[in-house]
Design goal:
The structure holds two protein chains of two kinds. Chain A is an all-alpha fold. Helix content of chain A is 77%, strand content 0%. The longest helix of chain A has 35 residues, at 180-214. Chain A is extended. The longest helix of chain B has 40 residues, at 240-279. Classes of the chains: A mainly alpha, B mainly alpha.
Chain lengths: 264, 280
């Protein structure tokens, strides 16, 4: 019986050590106040922990009297989420095809990608703050913020899906003498449909969650009520609003799961 | 096969009729109706929409025609604080999310544990970061540490969800083998699931840092520091030339961090695969 030759274990520890050292170094710099880092103050947590506990305690006693006042803002949030998702969906389909290599072999792709990278790099709250300053408070700056935010997410993921999709269909289309536009219309769009639909549904869910933030800067929706309750220290009411958002997000998640399964 | 079965004339080939798909039509109609209803409900002021391009170009000129570069050092310094909050937030949140996320995966933890954990994650996902920060700042005050803690706790909900989804996507042959050999929950996770899921989980941890960099800008709203503080301040006082500088800094820093972390993540996930292919 010949002894089994086990291949030697690859020597990965020098790399592991280097990576660990880097992570530790960054961590030390970020948490050492002497080096301009954040001060991690565990003593304060021990000392003031009961304040936080008291606030959570208040949240655990929901103040249901707020319920009637939440319907309008909640409806507004839902409407903003739907309109934002729909508008960005309409814009995202052509943009994704422009941003993917198989559907846009020209140089235009680079331009679209660069612009979208910038659009994605700006945080949603920055859009909301600036748009509110530009065009005033209300639902319009909120919807515009959602459209910009959703575009960044949906176009990136859908165009990546197009990039990695099976290109033979498109090749066949070209071989049959189709123009790029015809190939995109007849072959690329049906192929991307499931990814696209599921991303749009996901952006609808994200929109409801973001609206909590949008309201804080005056861009409409349920966030305005959150800000108000926070100002009046009505934590019980705040808890009710959060539970409402939770229910809505869960409902959308369940619905979109069902739809996604059917779309496949 | 004889030639007689072939159609004699090309037009004898009849394409089958397109299926009617009434349910799809109905779904499309309902979706359209919902969108229209939502639009009607919002009562957007269309007169402002007409003036929108003009006002946006006006403000863009205010912001970027002559940015106030004297604010640049301070902006960079505050951005560094934001990045630190993001890093510490990821450092505190990711390990907790990973440890809690693994038993929440199908086939790892028992059903009751899975349900409890998933419920907690769903609640954490629904609570906005800003609300979490409001609770924490009563304990730690208005410091960047508060921001880091809010990012950590707020991130746990999403990150744990990604963790259990990743674990569920791992082919479960190895885990089954460990269980068949008599391994308990801990041993199954360590030897059956972790080796297969580790690259993806590392990449997700880095991605959490990327997301935290974006989110930390939001936390400035309640005053925990970082570039978000400056942004809200300057926007409120309509100091547009300073806002322009801040936006440039945020965009450049975010894109740089995304690019760097994206490259590393690609190495983590793709690199591992190449190494495995090379050894056998």
């Amino acid at each position: 019986m010949t002894p089994l030759a086990v291949p030697p274990r690859p020597r990965t520890w020098p790399r592991t050590v280097a990576v660990l050292a880097l992570v530790v170094a960054i961590t030390v710099v970020t948490i050492t106040p002497a080096l301009g880092g954040i001060e991690i103050d565990l003593a304060t947590i021990a000392r003031n922990g009961h304040f936080g506990a008291a606030r959570i305690e208040k949240m655990l006693h929901p103040d249901l009297s707020i319920l009637p006042r939440t319907w309008r803002p909640l409806q507004e949030t839902l409407a903003m989420a739907v309109v934002g998702a729909a508008a960005s969906a309409a814009l995202a389909l052509p943009l994704s095809l422009w941003a993917a290599r198989p559907t846009n072999p020209g140089v235009g792709r680079r331009v679209v990608r660069a612009v979208l990278n910038v659009v994605r790099a700006v945080p949603d709250l920055v859009y909301a703050t600036i748009l509110v300053a530009m065009i005033g408070v209300g639902a319009l700056p909120g919807v515009l913020t959602l459209v910009l935010f959703d575009l960044g997410v949906v176009v990136k993921l859908v165009s990546e899906a197009v990039d990695s999709a099976d290109p033979t269909y498109l090749e066949a289309g070209h071989a049959a003498g189709g123009t790029q536009a015809q190939v995109n219309r007849v072959l690329a769009i049906p192929q991307t449909w499931p990814v696209y639909a599921s991303q749009v549904l996901y952006s609808l869910e994200l929109n409801v969650r973001i609206s909590a933030v949008l309201g804080l800067v005056g861009a409409g929706g349920i966030g305005r009520l959150i800000d108000e309750m926070r100002g009046f220290y009505r934590y019980g009411a705040l808890a009710v609003i959060i539970v409402e958002i939770l229910v809505v997000v869960l409902l959308i998640e369940v619905a979109s799961n069902v739809l996604r399964r059917r779309l496949r | 096969m004889s030639a007689s079965v072939l159609p004699t004339k090309p037009d004898a080939v009849v394409a089958p009729a397109r299926p009617g798909r009434p349910l799809v039509r109905l779904a499309q109609l309902v979706t359209g109706a919902v969108v229209l209803a939502a639009l009607w409900q919002l009562r957007l002021d269309w007169t402002t929409v007409a003036g929108l391009p003009a006002s946006i170009t006006h403000y863009l000129r205010l912001m970027f025609a002559a940015p106030d570069w004297s604010k640049l050092p301070y902006a960079l310094q505050q951005t560094w604080v934001s990045v630190q909050m993001a890093w510490v937030g990821a450092l505190l949140g990711v390990p907790v999310a990973t440890v809690l996320g693994i038993p929440a995966a199908h086939g790892v933890g028992p059903l009751w544990l899975r349900l409890v954990l998933r419920g907690i994650f769903a609640v954490l996902r629904a609570v906005p970061e800003v609300v979490i920060a409001i609770v924490i700042l009563t304990v730690t005050g208005l410091t960047p540490f508060t921001g880091a803690l809010a990012l950590a706790i707020g991130g746990i909900g999403t990150h744990a969800k990604w963790t259990y989804e990743t674990i569920e996507a791992v082919p479960d042959g190895a885990a089954e083998a460990v269980r068949a050999a008599g391994g308990n929950l801990l041993e199954t996770a360590r030897w059956g699931l972790w080796p297969a899921a580790a690259p993806e989980l590392m990449s997700l941890a880095l991605y959490r840092f990327e997301i935290n960099v974006r989110t930390s800008a939001i936390l400035g709203l309640i005053g925990v520091g970082g570039v978000g503080d400056l942004l809200t301040g300057y926007t409120q006082y309509r100091t547009w030339d300073a806002v322009g500088v801040l936006i440039l800094v945020v965009v450049v820093v975010t894109m740089a961090i995304d690019a760097a972390s994206g490259a590393i993540r690609q190495r983590i996930t793709k690199g591992a695969r190449i190494r495995v292919a090379g050894t056998d």
